[in-house]
Amino acid sequence: MEVLPTLRRSLIVALALLLTACPRTSRTPSGGTTGEDVPTGDPFPKKPAIEVRKDASADAALAQARQTAQATPDKKQAAEAYLSVRKAYPATTAGQDALYQAGVLFFESKDYVNARKSFNELLFENPLYTQAEDAKRKLALSAMEVGAYRDAYQTLSSLAERAEGAEKEQLLRDAARAAEGAGLYGQSLTMAVEEAGQAKTQAERDAAVARVEALVEGRADFVDIARVADGLSPSNPAWPVLTFKLARVYYHLREWNRLEETLNRFLAEAPGSPFAPQARELLARATRRVEAKPRTVGVLLPMTGRYQPIGEAVLRGIQLGLEGSDIELVVKDTQGDVNKTGQAMEQLAFDDGAIAVLGPVLADDSKRAALVAEELQVPLLTMTRQDGVTDLGAYVFRNMLTNAAQANAVADYAINVKGYKKFALLYPNIPYGVELANEFWDQVVDQGGVVRGAERYSHDQTTFTQEAKKLVGRYYLEDRGDYVEGVRDLQGENLDAFRRRKALEKVKSGVEPIIDFEAIFMPDDWRRVSLVAPALAVEDIVTNACDPRDLERIRKTTGKKELKTVTLFGANQWSSPKGRSGLPELIERGGKFVTCSVYVDGFFVDSQRPATRNFVRKYRESYKQETGKDPGLLEAIGYDSGRMLRQLVEKKEGAPRTRAQMRESLANLKDFDGATGRTSFNDKREAVKQLFLLSIDNKGVTEINVDKEREKAASATGGSGS
């Protein structure tokens, strides 16, 4: 079975790049390093580095050292007797014999550092020494004991190539242990599999298979497993372990054809394997991936934990949208955990047979669900604001109010309906504010407008004097020619300190605001908006342009016949609950300073749109007594999303029977009349709809009939629409 090409296609490039970028080094006997990942070859010279000679005095000294060593119970002390001969007669056969004997004694006394030193020195000088094979083996075992696993593996694997029988088997076992210690799991796996195939007893076979299993579970990488498994005979006791691991790899790589092929062969060759029950379940699970129940819809929402209220709100909307249908709703609790979200998505696909899935709402959950949905090719209609979520695959759709949609709606209304061209931005330094400000700026420029000024403030700020002054050019007064000229005039007057201070204050207050913009976009929460708007009025920015009586009062107060008025625009966080007066709290707190403003939202509970009114009525009948509240955007989005799938599932002709058909049906959905607007999906599978433009006056919030105003604007400009 050719398993390696498939895995290489997915993994080998990444692994090669990783290994190239982070080369591991291995020690050589001479103390140097090599960039080779796997040591190869014999580390010792092929010829003696020193020409030794036989010497009678050295032989006599060696004999004396042997007697001393035999009489000394401490093997380390006995080794020192041999080393004294080595030191006195280095270039003699007796000197090399003494070095070998010292190494043996150090090894037997478990002084592996000195044993390694002695054997290394001996073998480097004379790799043809009569006891070289034994010295190399003890050298390798010493290296392993001190943690020099790569050196040990290099030597042991070299010895095993030339050995036979039981000696070869032991050397292979030791080499495998050294390779594992060095992190050379591919080599260790190769030897463990070979050992399993050559084992003579059941105990040996079980031990080798256990090592193979330990290596494939989190140590050897996928490519090594595929390499070792490629061409391996099913008669090898390790074959079931490797083959079932490969099947699990294919499952995670979503290589469905390879998975089924591997599992079918596994069950044919090893039906009695301990892994066989898992293999059958995995095969059944893989088969079920394409089996969808046309009337089963999955839901992924946080039904417990800190985000439970969000999940409950969306689910109420979904259930209301499916009320009276025979669609089976399978709800999975994500708990706001990305791992649980991924698992739940797989369960909906494999175990529950959902033809499509609604949710999640949270950003990270949605990304994980989208990735799994694309892998398994399950249509996912998510309700998140997460940027780029539909870019993750053709099976991922989104039905939710986004920052881009809000910015586009406000810019379109301000420029193409109201005729404004010059804007200012005032926004909080948080992701919501920054993203909306950037999106709005881009939309203004794209539609031919300009941004004259932009100021941001801290998210926890409560006073906004500086920002208001900066917008109208009253903050950096030294840059204002009229202010500098006024100060210069004071310098020629003979005034005491008090009068000079008063005169300077008069000059400052006399500096006229530079209001070179027609509107200000303020993407912030309604609480902060109610604080910012009065600060603008202090700097003579008149925002309540729609109130003739207040405008007349301002003219009389300031003595100015021509007033420069500015319209405030906002986003969905301007929506506020009703206060004690029955008016939205934004109006209660902001008063006249927020009247005449316009903001956008994805849902308006008091809308006169028939589909919205129908949803609000049904929701109040079903849930108002339970929750004590009217529905909001989350309930409305859940309701519309559920009804979209219901409309497709309940089609009299051409209802989708497979997930691929459901994906096509969703992609072609046009002009769905929902509580959040008439919805279609664009080529990026993003919901496109007319949002709610809302106007504020002292009586409350009313929906703007944008189409009607657009017609009036077009009529006033001779049909140009601008």
Quick tags:
single chain, alpha/beta, 5-stranded parallel β-sheet, 29 helices, 17 strands, 54% helix, disordered N terminus, Amino acid/amide ABC transporter substrate-binding protein, HAAT family, signal, BCAA_transport, TPR-like_helical_dom_sf, Leu-bd
Structural class: alpha/beta
> What's the Cα radius of gyration?
40 Å
Major beta sheet, specifics?
Answer: 7 strands, mixed
Tally of contiguous helical segments: 29
Helix content: 40-55%
Separation of the first and last Cα atoms? 68 Å
The pLDDT mean sits at 88
- Strand runs, count: 17
What is the 3D form?
elongated
Low-confidence stretches: 1-38
Strand order of the largest sheet: 9-8-10-11-12-16-17
How large a portion of the residues is in β-strands, by DSSP E?
Answer: 5-15%
Helix-strand layout with pairing:
Layout: H1 4-21, E1 26-27, E2 33-34, H2 56-71, H3 75-88, H4 93-108, H5 112-125, H6 132-145, H7 149-162, H8 165-181, H9 185-198, H10 202-216, H11 222-229, H12 239-253, H13 256-269, H14 276-288, E3 293-301, H15 308-321, E4 328-333, H16 338-350, E5 354-358, H17 363-376, E6 380-382, E7 396-398, H18 403-417, E8 422-428, H19 431-446, E9 450-457, H20 465-471, H21 481-491, H22 497-510, E10 519-521, H23 526-538, H24 548-558, E11 567-570, H25 585-590, E12 598-601, H26 610-627, H27 633-649, H28 659-667, E13 672-674, E14 677-681, E15 687-688, E16 692-697, E17 700-703, H29 706-716
